Amino acid sequence: MQVRVLVRLKPGVLDPQGRAVHHALEGMGFEGVNDVRIGRLIELGVADGTDHAAITAMCEKLLANTVIESFTIETDGSAG
Amino acid sequence: MSFRAAVVTFPGSNCDRDMAVGLEAVSGISALRVWHGDAELPDRLDLIALPGGFSYGDYLRSGAMAATSPIMRAVVAAAERGVPVLGVCNGFQVLTEARLLPGALLRNAGQRFICRTVTLAIGNTNSLFTNSYAEGETIRLPVAHHDGNYYADADTLDRLEGEGRVAFRYAESCNGSARDIAGVLSANGRVLGLMPHPERAIEPGAVPALGGADGRRLLESILASFASA
After folding, report:
1. Domain ranges across chain A
2. Domain residues of chain B, as ranges?
3. Could you tell me the mean pLDDT of each successive run of 10 residues in chain B, 229 residues long?
4. CA-CA distance, A6 to B90, in Å (whole number)?
5. Yes or no: is domain A2-79 CATH 3.30.1280.10?
6. B72, B107, B108: which to substitute to probe chain A, counting the most A Cβ within 10 Å?
7. Mapping DSSP to helix (H, G, I), strand (E, B) and coil, where does residue A16 land?
8. Which residues on chain B place their C-beta less than 8 Å from a C-beta of chain A?
9. Residues sharing a CB contact under 8 Å with residue B140, sequence separation 6 or more, in sequence order
10. Which three-class secondary structure state does DSSP give residue B101?
11. What CATH number has the domain spanning B5-228?
């Protein structure tokens, strides 16, 4: 079973990388970009039937730092 | 009783030797060396030091992988028993990832790696790590980091300031850290994490380019606390 974990910086946490990319896009002439935030996609191949709680625990304990990041878990097309 | 300090080495640590040399310089006793894969620490420790470097290549987040290593379970248990723990630079990142200290260290606001000597204000001269510094004193220590931008939510920052847990503050803008925080103490004051490198500033008379000697007194503070305990 494939699981996708999307890790994002929480709102309000400065993202210098996103800001630099935003400036680069503007410098290239792309208009109308209001904000750029950079996150991380983690793809997990896990045993079929691995429960959501176990994946949540992986996220809370290692994959995301919940002081600064939030995460969403997508399993077989479902988000949660 | 003689002072027993242990320096932990993770794969990618690069200031572990400097820390061991610094501790020996102030105590006259060789620091014990511990490997990340060790499940146990030496007994009767008076200090555990987590050094600077790039543990596990900074994979995932700086300090995140090291925080899961076998030795860190022992370090967390020792810290809970009140053994003093000092984390410098990557060691500070490891301490936040292990939740021994609040907050997190983000990429520097200016995106660049910063390697220079900075001026710091001492925020608390009573802690076991800072008792050799004077109230209102400023010191100079080297910094060398990419992820030193301290972040915590406003309530946490207020609490840290209210409880005297901001041990060091940048006296000049450095890396974007919230409220210019350079080093924080745990609630019981026995865990300190800081981005600047005291172990790179321990030799009086050394040329200023080598960092000066202001870091020596941090290590001497620990010794003084040990001697008076």
Report:
1. 2-79
2. 5-228
3. 93 97 95 96 97 96 96 98 98 98 96 94 96 95 96 97 98 95 98 97 71 91 90
4. 25
5. yes
6. B107
7. helix
8. 60-61, 64, 68, 96-97, 102-104, 106-111, 149, 151-152, 176
9. B117, B118, B119, B120, B201, B211, B212, B214
10. coil
11. 3.40.50.880
